[in-house]
TrEMBL record:
Cell compartments where the protein resides: Cell membrane
Composition-biased stretches (Basic and acidic residues): 400-409
Lineage: Bacteria, Bacillati, Actinomycetota, Actinomycetes, Bifidobacteriales
Region Disordered, annotated ranges: 306-336, 354-409
TM ranges: 34-55, 67-91, 112-136, 167-191, 203-221, 252-275
Main location group: membrane
Name the record gives this protein: Glycerol transporter
The keyword Cell division belongs to this UniProt entry's keyword annotation: no
Family, per entry: Belongs to the MIP/aquaporin (TC 1.A.8) family.
Low complexity composition bias: residue spans: 355-368
Length: 409
């Protein structure tokens, strides 16, 4: 058995008495809230800075626009930063992800609003850094920023190439691709968060892959918005750089599409959860209804089996005769012992009362006063005879000796 050490150290004095425990400052919920918001601000700042610089410098260095570098830069930036700070704040770094988390109750309303404000501030700081470090000696700033500012139609990064073919991507096409890309990103981020908003182990990997797929779909048309904070941070500082199309005028699309995609994803998740819960409750109800019936049937079977067993045991212990009832009764009658052959009865039917009295007196004199009972035939039931009562006169007459009897000499 192992003993776990106490989290709070105990101080002992010299005399062996326990001293007072040191007072520790407890972290309050609002402190945790601000720590998480600071993580969201720092993470969004790092991600947007990598995106702005890689899009601008990478495209000019390579000589021609390419989607490979934006895909790799965006995917790796989200993957690394989410792995770093996802354990603190959940790794949103995108207002669309935060809105979806608010709808699915993975984060509170107040915390969600604080997250969004922190994300926008982080993106604005990254935009300021990107514009400040862009060299303007030979290449104007608008040339540097055209590959990192989100836009459609004339503001698309492929607008110059498409204009030669008299092709332009308008707002409908931009809305479609942004909705698709944002739904992929939001769904991957939300499904890898726990119910309390904490990030799972695969959250960083899935989020990075989802952003890579989203950039692959949207970059040629809108320069890959996918994140309202990312679109806002660079649009604010590119507004005064004489861009072909005002970035602020097209910023609405890069807020509406991500938020709409977040709402659709949250709605699908909520509906799916409701349907799953109802199916589980229905299955549980069926099982609960079937359980009493099964129990009653089981009890009935057990009762029937117990009754049959008891009946068999009773039959074995007390077998009841079914046949030969009359023969058994006759045998029982034969086994009855006959009356005692020594039983004697006095038959006085043929004698008169006088003879019976004389015979009784003579018997008494001969046997010294003992009654003698005549034997009766075997097999006859002796009749109960009542001796006649002898009065005092009869006794005196029968037993009184004559007074004149002479005595022997």
């Amino acid at each position: 058995m192992t003993m776990e050490a106490s989290a709070e150290p105990v101080l002992e004095q010299a005399d062996g008495q326990v001293a007072a425990k040191p007072v520790r400052r407890r972290i309050r919920p609002r402190d945790v809230r601000w720590i998480r918001a600071a993580a969201e601000l720092a993470g969004t700042f790092l991600i947007c800075a990598v995106i702005y610089l890689s899009y601008s410098f990478g495209q000019l260095v390579m000589g021609q626009p390419s989607v490979v570098l934006p895909v790799l830069g965006t995917a790796l930036a989200y993957l690394v930063v989410t792995a770093m700070l996802g354990g603190v704040s959940g790794g949103h770094f995108n207002p669309a992800v935060t809105v979806a988390a608010m709808f699915t109750s993975q984060i509170g309303m107040v915390d969600g609003l604080i997250y969004i404000v922190a994300q926008v501030i982080g993106a604005i700081g990254a935009g300021a850094i990107a514009v400040a470090f862009v060299p303007v000696s030979r290449v104007p700033q608008r040339t540097w920023l055209m590959f990192s500012v989100n836009g459609f139609s004339g503001g698309s990064p492929a607008a110059a190439t498409l204009s030669q073919q008299h092709i332009a991507f308008g707002a409908p096409m931009a809305i479609v691709v942004e909705l698709i890309g944002c739904m992929i990103v939001v769904a991957a981020a939300i499904t890898t968060l726990r119910s309390d908003g904490r990030a799972r182990r695969n959250h960083a990997l899935y989020t990075g892959l989802a952003y890579g797929v989203g950039v692959l779909v949207t970059y040629p048309i809108t320069c890959s918005g996918l994140n309202p904070a990312r679109s806002t941070g660079i649009a604010i500082f590119a507004q005064s750089k004489h861009m072909a199309v005002s970035p602020i005028s097209q910023l609405w699309l890069f807020w509406i599409c991500p938020l709409l995609a977040a709402s659709l994803v949250a709605l699908v998740i909520i509906v799916t959860s409701i349907i799953t819960d109802n199916m589980a409750m229905h299955a549980m109800g069926i099982a609960t209804d079937a359980q009493p019936v099964a129990q009653a049937q089981t009890h009935a079977d057990a009762f029937a089996a117990t009754g049959a067993q008891t009946q068999d045991q009773s039959a074995q212990a007390n077998p009841a005769p079914v046949q030969n009832t009359a023969a058994d009764a006759a045998d029982a009658a034969d086994t009855v012992a006959p009356a005692d052959t020594t039983a004697q009865a006095v038959d006085v039917s043929a004698l008169s009362d006088t003879d019976a009295g004389q015979d009784a007196d003579a018997g008494k004199q001969a046997d010294g006063g003992q009654d003698e009972v005549a034997p009766v035939d075997a097999g006859t039931i002796p009749d109960l005879q009542v001796e006649p009562l002898h009065t005092a006169s009869e006794n005196e007459e029968g037993y009184e000796e004559p007074k004149d009897k002479p005595t022997e000499g």
